[in-house]
């Protein structure tokens, strides 16, 4: 072992990958001078050594001769070859970074794949799932039902007013039932949940991301996708069909009450017309739409939340973007599903 010693009042230690400096009095000893690549610059009262290798270790041991600390710097015995993708060799590839709009736009699809994988492999945190199910279901039912009731009464005013002129009062219930089951109930429920829970998901996960709480979960051995995202997706996927069915019932009931109380059309006529017009597929299609809408809301909101940057301002922007993207996704998915489910000429009103 060869030793390089230089006593100075101040020793300046610097590394290529770390800007930390050590100011101390002592000696420098290199364990293997044949592999030691470096440069010593003596400037005034300081000794500056810059390491050109990455696999080095610094040991501090007392010097029994003069009482000063002794620094031993050794390289790893099993040092790896120089990485061919080092930024000094390929500066273009090192400086290139994926644009934020690109990786943020792809994040919902990547997150959806991860969630599906977790569900299929059984990696589900059921306690968190039940908590999120309570938030999406019972705690969101009030505003959903209230919205459905007033939308139902507003549509009743328009339908009854026009159908009465044509003498088709017995068809009002069937038209309202078809409109509610196929379009209004799933879309209205999804919009309310997107505004209430989608914004909450994005704000919660965005705050956790900027405050590094998600990193703390990884340090503790918990995957944020398993612990935070998957329970929210499952809860939305289960709760929205139930909310849609409740909104359909309340909307049709409010329409029947308004038609009977204001326009003199019997509730029995409305309900009988709805019974003859509805098919089982109308209710099933509404449930399928609601499940798709729930998945869109939860995945879009969670993906925008966990990709938040920039502190409080970033959280606000992510929350707004999550709601907007969720609403756009709901309308696009509604058109696509309606086009698939209801092709050709319908015959639901023939029996009225």
Automatic annotation (TrEMBL):
An example Gene Ontology CC term for this record: ATP-binding cassette (ABC) transporter complex
Membrane-topology descriptor: Multi-pass membrane protein
Keywords: ATP-binding, Membrane, Nucleotide-binding, Transmembrane, Transmembrane helix, Transport
Transmembrane segments: 238-271, 292-310, 322-342
GO molecular function, one term: ATP binding
Pfam families: MlaE
Keyword NAD listed: no
Compartments (UniProt record): Membrane
Assigned protein family: Belongs to the MlaE permease family.
Protein known as: ATP-binding cassette
């Amino acid at each position: 072992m060869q030793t390089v010693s230089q006593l100075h009042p101040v020793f300046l230690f610097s590394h290529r990958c770390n800007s930390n400096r050590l100011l101390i009095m002592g000696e420098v000893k290199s364990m293997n001078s044949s592999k030691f690549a470096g440069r010593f610059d003596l400037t005034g009262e300081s000794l500056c050594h810059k390491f050109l290798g990455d696999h080095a270790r610094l040991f501090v041991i007392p010097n029994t001769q003069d009482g000063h600390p002794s620094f031993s710097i050794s390289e790893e015995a099993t040092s790896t070859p120089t990485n061919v993708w080092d930024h000094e060799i390929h500066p273009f590839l090192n400086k290139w970074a994926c644009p934020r709009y690109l990786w943020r736009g792809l994040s919902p699809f990547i997150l959806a794949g991860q969630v599906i994988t977790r569900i299929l492999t059984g990696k589900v945190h059921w306690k968190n799932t039940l908590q999120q199910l309570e938030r999406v279901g019972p705690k969101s039912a009030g505003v959903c039902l209230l919205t459905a009731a007033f939308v139902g009464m507003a549509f009743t005013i328009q339908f009854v007013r026009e159908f009465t002129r044509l003498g088709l009062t017995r068809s009002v219930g069937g038209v309202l039932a078809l409109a509610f089951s196929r379009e209004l109930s799933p879309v209205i429920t999804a919009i309310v949940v997107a505004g209430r829970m989608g914004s909450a998901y994005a704000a919660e996960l965005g705050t956790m991301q900027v405050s590094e709480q998600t990193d703390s979960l990884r340090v503790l051995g918990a995957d944020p996708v398993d612990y935070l995202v998957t329970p929210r997706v499952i809860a939305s996927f289960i709760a929205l069909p139930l909310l849609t069915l409740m909104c359909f019932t309340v909307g049709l009931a409010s329409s029947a009450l308004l038609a009977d109380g204001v326009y003199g059309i019997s509730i029995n006529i409305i309900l009988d017309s709805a019974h003859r017009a509805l098919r089982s597929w109308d209710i099933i299609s509404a449930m399928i739409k609601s499940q798709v809408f729930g998945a869109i809301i939860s995945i879009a909101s969670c993906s925008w939340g966990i990709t938040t940057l920039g502190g409080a301002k970033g959280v606000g922007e992510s929350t707004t973007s999550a709601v907007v993207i969720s609403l756009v996704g709901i309308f696009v998915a509604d058109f696509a599903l309606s086009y698939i489910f209801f092709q050709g000429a319908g015959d639901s009103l023939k029996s009225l």
